Amino acid sequence: MTTPVxxxxxxxxxxxxxxxxxxxxxxWGRPWLYLPLTGLLLLMVTPFLWMLSGSLKPEADIRKIPPxxxxxxxxxxxxxxxxxxxxxxxxxxxxxxxxxxxxxxxxLFCSMLGxxxxxxxxxxxxxxxxxxxxxxxxPGLVTFVPLYVLVxxxxxxxxxxxxxxxxxxxxxxxxxxxxxxxxxxxxxxxxARVDGCSELAIFWKIILPLTRPALATLGIITFLxxxxxFLWPLVVAQNESQYTLPVGLALASSGQDFTRFGILLAGAVxxxxxxxxxxxxxxxxxxxxxxxxxxx
Amino acid sequence: MTTMPTGTxxxxxxxxxxxAGPQPAARRNSAPRRTARGRQTRAAWTLAAPFLALFLAFxxxxxxxxxxxxxTDTKSADLRTPLSVSFTGFDNYVRLFQDPQFFTALQNTAxxxxxxxPLTLAAGLAAAVALDRGIRRxxxxxxxxxxxxxxxxxxxxAVVWKTLLEPHTGLVNTVLGWFGIDGPAWLxxxxxxxxxxxxxxxxxxLGTVMIIMLAGxxxxxxxxxxxxELDGAGAWQRFWRVTFPLLRPALLLTAVTTGIGYLQxxxxxxxxxxxGPLDSTLSATLYAYKQFGxxxxxxxxxxxxxxxxxxxxxxxxxxxxxxxxx
Lengths: 296, 326
What we know:
The complex is a heterodimer of chains A (296) and B (326). With 296 residues, chain A is mainly α.
């Protein structure tokens, strides 16, 4: 387990080697760890590579035994057919629209309540916080059934609003924003009050800009969650004009098209690509934000 | 008797009250501090109102409604007028526990949690420790690679895994074939379907654990580690005596959140096997969903509440075991 690099007294003849080894270690870490970690990394990304490879194969090659790891006759036919057969553009637009609306709602409403819980004093504060946090534990299926009845009674099952409304304000967002905002210095707020800034202006002009890293994190998490949300849109969407991408993909995979692996894999690539890009662009924010929630 | 004067005061004070929030009396006879308090209270509730309104309608109301549903016979009822239902007490729960299929579902859920959760935590922790102390170059590449499955859509991933696990044309059995192993039918085999889904869950979730642990590890002061090293503590001892106790809050958080997620094990069997073969991947949540699909809203709600009870039990247990002992 231990690497002998830091052993205390070194014979002067070996000093050079030790120093060199230390430098290598500072840059590379422990070389022997790369092998198992790279193996594990390979396992983690194999499904993605398989998906990409399969989506570029003609259907006949997908059924080949044994399969080719790298497509021998790469083709975009699956993608072309995907765009042609499924009502792809409208599903894509629905997914984007729903995800953006849900994200915007959460950023606004969760940061508002998060600030009130973190920095303002009011009666009922503890009760509100406890209630909101306690619902983090409530399983989806407990609210699912009445929510379905509720939304269909509101006659929202035929519109995108039915996909958006129940997710506009989520407890997790409040938790995250409160954790982050409570790390901001109180002096800022006191100073603004002394200068005669109104309470709401303090939130809007001072707190919100400072909260940007947490907002970025919450934004990404919410966007991803909404983009990947599957069960609710599947149940609520009544006609194809409301389908989101995962719903379209799932229905395609359970229908007769299930035998068309190439199209399904191309569909999976299309579902995963936008979120992967978003994640890669913002991953620093993401990691920082997750860390703030995790440690307080 | 006092209606008249009170009314007058209220009328006179109405402007004042607007400025001072809900306690005009307090405002009139006290120092500016009190006023500030009132302003804060009003601002706080203004900020909280939009969230709370949505929360009330789409979270609290459904939670209570669902509880009522689980105690009624919804078959006979018109759900648009919730008060017309007939209460049947705990009948639904009794029926639930008499249903052998529900028992199977609970059993599968228990296996999924009891095997999957420790595996996920251990794998995520190991990856985090290896990345934190062991590796300098390319750390970001590893981090992104391990985290990639977390951000993926279950549906997309399920499709991919289905093709990976295809008995004849899938990659998994092909690779096993290289070693002369004749791979099973995986998702179509009652012995393998659930274990496969456990492995899938570990694959999908270890990144979350890793990221949070990594953050925790980076907050362990270097000086503490060096002090322990000077005192002659080996790497293993340093980990268990120094690092691990400091990781406890992070571990608790991930254990609780992952545990809550795993108890609601649903997406993979829903998309990949529909609970089969022979109910071997039927989970409690999938059972509830099927009841919902059959129009048994009462049974679905009752099953939902059983899962809720299990979540509370597991969370309490985790707090007992993992919280700091002070």
